[in-house]
Amino acid sequence: MNRYFWILGGFAALVALLAVGLNLNPRDVPSPLVGKPAPAFALNVLAKPETTLAPKDMQGKVWLLNVWASWCVSCRQEHPILVEFSKKTDVPLIGLNYKEVRGDGGFDMGKMPADEEKRLAFQRANKWLADHGDPYTLTVMDLDGRVGIDYGVYGVPETYVIDKAGIIRMKHTGPITPDVLGKKIMPLLAELGK
Fold it and tell me: What is the pTM of this model?
């Protein structure tokens, strides 16, 4: 009889854990970077490939870093929201174009020279922004995804809120929705802007 209660108790505990787990959002993966300085980079700017941008250039400003690519279906979903956001606020929105050619999967990267990859990535990103609108203050090109690795990117889109001191204050994985923008990002931006 005692053994029966142990089995029943173990089963009840397992059901409770599963019930809690099923109610969690799988996109809410905590980032170890929140509360830490934004990783450094110096990447070419899409509009002016001869220039670079680094997080240190944004010191003293609250800003967003949005990771996107033209091949990303979810990026299309959030893009109109970003366009509207950029019209309504002066908070800099920096685009990090992530693995524009490599991430597509339709190219044999072993046969593509680096200069051809760069030319094609810049062409594709520019065309996508021309077709869909450009909400970004600037877009930088992470051709090989190394900066994405430093930021812990495991999918696109992802968005980071970075404060005036260069500290990451929030990471949002997945497309930004009006609800996320209104209830999470905008209040945080207002608080950090004080």
Answer: 0.83
